[in-house]
Amino acid sequence: MSNIDAFSRLCAQLAKLPGVGRKSAQRMAYYLLSQPEDQVQALADAITTARTKVHECRICGNYTDQDICSICADERRDGSTLCVVRDPRDVAAIERMRDYNGKYHVLHGIISPMEGIGPDDIRIRELMARLNGVHEVILATNPDIEGEATAAYIARLLKPFTDIKVTRIAHGLPVGGEVPHAVHQIVP
């Protein structure tokens, strides 16, 4: 195998990363080839270690390298409030705001009949099993068709739990809109 084949393979693998096109993959490949071998090996080791050691938290489904993630293990967090999100990236985004002090439940997907994903294919059963002591569930799925369908489905499941308040995150304020209309409680 020639060096050009190895370079092309590296570019092809980098281009598979989300948001990385052919030109960006080439820039990254040239950069990696210009770095000392120990730095490139450190990157490769970090990728391999993360892939083998990081898994879902047994409570919330967020990514962790421990049995329980740091958020679930933190006793200072409000366990009576659960924020339901699509994937671990959403947890990271909400945590960056530093305004939320409750706990999370990661669905690892959304209901999408077009892709053959139903309620049994995401972590809804696990959510229902976590409701003891929960007083509020915040549905923080994206405001697209699948996210709204998933939120509505979960809200219907939670309706019989009259002691649990079900809310939906705000999705922005349209031009000419009013604040009371931006934040609303789901009433399925």
Describe the structure.
With 188 residues, the chain is an alpha/beta fold. It has helices at residues 3-14, 22-34, 37-53, 70-73, 88-97, 124-129, 145-158, 179-182; strands at 55-56, 63-64, 78-85, 102-106, 136-139, 165-168. 43% of the residues lie in helices and 13% in strands. Strands 4-3-5-6 form a four-stranded parallel β-sheet. Strands 1-2 form a two-stranded antiparallel sheet. Strand 5 (136-139), helix 7 (145-158) and strand 6 (165-168) form a beta-alpha-beta unit. Helix 1 crosses helix 2 (22-34). The radius of gyration is 21 Å and the shape is elongated.
Alpha plus pi helix count: 8
The structural class is: alpha/beta
* Through-space gap between termini: 61 Å
Task: Calculate the mean pLDDT score and round it.
Answer: 89
Proportion in helices = 40-55%
What is the subunit arrangement here? single chain
- Across the major sheet, the strand order is 4-3-5-6
Largest sheet: 4 strands, parallel
The total beta strand count reads 6
The 3D shape can be described as elongated
Rg calculated over all Cα atoms: 21 Å
- Low-confidence regions: 179-188
Order of helices and strands: HHHEEHEHEHEHEH
Percentage of β-strand residues: 5-15%
